Amino acid sequence: MDFMELLNFYIVPGLVLGSIYALGAVGITLVFAILRYAHLAHGDIATLGAFIAFAAVTLLGLPVYAALPVAMVVTAFAAVGIDRLFYDYLRERPRIVTVMASLGVALMVRSVVQVIWGVDAESYIRGIARPENWWGIRLKDREIVTILSMIGLVLALQLFLMKTKWGKAMRAMSDNPNLALLSGVDNGKVVFLTWLIVGGLCAASGFFLGLNTELKSMMGWQMLLPMFAAAILGGVGRIEGAVLGGLIVGVAEEVSVIFLPSEYKAATAFAILLLMLLVRPTGLLRGKVL
Amino acid sequence: MKNVRLALAGALLGATALAAPAQADVKIGLLGGVSGPIAAMAPAMIDSAQLAIQQVNDQGGILNGEKLVPVVGDSACNPQNATDAATKAVNIEGVIAIVGPHCSGAVLAAANSVAVPAGVVIITPSGTSPEISKLDDKDLVFRTVPSDDFQGRALARTLLERGTNKVAVAYLNNDYGKGLAEAFKVEFEDKGGEIAGFAAHEEGKASYRSDLAELADGGADTLVIFDYGDGAGLTMLRQALENGFFENFVGGDGMKSDAPIKELGAENLTTFTASSPVGAQSEALEVFNEAFKGVGGDPDAIFVTTSYDAAFLAALAIEKAGGDKAKVAEALRSVSDGKGETILPGEWQKAKELIAAGTDIDYKGAAGDHDFDELGDVPGVYALFKVQDGAFVVDTEMK
Prior knowledge:
- The complex is a heterodimer.
- Chain A is mostly helical.
- Chain A contains eleven helices and two strands; from the N terminus they run ααααββααααααα.
- A two-stranded antiparallel ribbon of chain A has the order 1-2.
- In chain A, α1 packs across α9 and α9 (about 220-235) crosses α10.
- The N and C termini of chain B lie far apart (about 80 Å).
């Protein structure tokens, strides 16, 4: 195998896949950092976002990329609604109760998607798109858009957290909720903001997964494990860690095929997760210890 | 006060006694992959089974005029959901026989953990894995679809006849994919073909490009995919076409789904063929086609004939067994053993009268005669399909 082949068929697909994981992992890490629990409905909310974008394309006739912001906004408010309906009144209870509730929410969201859009595979753009050759690297437009959008969204989020008042409030609450409350940070508003951002990121990851493959009602659920692996690999609570983790998990899954029988590909993320928890539970970038 | 309570209790008791119908309905489980990777195929299959049940009810009902009631369950094409759905059907709904589940892994799980211990007959219209023949099933597991052992071998011979001597094989890592791939591999290599790549993959991954690159390394220009056309098979086909890993694509029956045509476009599938069981042309098939068209069904959809036959056979067996669960398996063999008065699809009233008179009957189904062998299997006829004008048409018969 020469270098270009390695790049084209293993590294590039891995990076595209990794970008999709990264968008999901950033959301997971935010929930972990600010609300302090594992949110298991993350994948299915991503599915919901992907299908909302699909509705925007088919019903409103929007161009595919214009459907992304629509889906992000709608899903953001859906996520806030889910928090109000299901998680809010569990906030004072042990965390594990909320984790289990999120599993129930995952099943409900998936069923809603199945009831509205059915269970068939769908796609935003019919037909196939052959990659173009960029100095020997084979890339499709939508893959370039996926990677660039991921970088753009994460930079915007990072700027928001560092520079704005509410971003600082979110970080304060992540560090110490009681102290933040004492200093006048409105916890309720921070939770609201967190879910807005998380919902939007979920929609983006679902959208890009659907764009690069197909839309299926199980697509998000099947991404959940690699996303968690990415978040923990990078260090819980670290945005840049989640991005790094996502890219590593994506590339590792694709490259694993060279060394392992391909049926073990799906287990790669799991192996990374186990190894990381065993060797360095704080993650690559020293996140919080839960 | 005491008297009032007593009266109330008495009234309630009376009401329940009245509410219980004089004749209990006879329930039959219809388990299928309503969600999951074969979701696009399942509705038509369940509809055709419902047609059989509707005909039974329209023509005098089952046993003493009772209604045959279908209990639809979602086996989601995986072992966990199949076990759940079968448990619910058997233990809560109290079904007397099960038609389905649709996928091989689901059939194995439902049979092993629920139906066989409970002594309930299972007839699958589409579970094709050779593993199902090997089940220790106390003669309770049947199928109206031939085992993939036949299909894999027939496909191998057909490809060799067409001059394809070197292929790579990608199969889904479950009972269906594995069974088919192994049967294919044995026959293909026996007859002098070369397998240049042979790898399993998991479903639900976003990218199979690395898998495809590994397979293409062997130098074959034909990829044989044993997967589902609504699941990973679609993603794989898309990525292989987009990146030009292979020139020709051959699928098993799971790939003969409308999803690839709908999502990838017929113009991109000119080099794609898929094998699938076909009903041999017969009077029974025509009768079924008319009846299924009559209720708005598409008789060319995959596995509708086998689903219909499975449901109709189950009804016949229940009738013959007199509603006794323990005798259904034995009755099933006797209503379709090639001996006795011929019953065609939809001829419920005739069958019912003959059974009542004690005459032997023999069901000739839409998909074939269904003379079960000792493993509960039936032999099969296959054809290789190609895509033309946005639909699958028969390319060659397979022997």
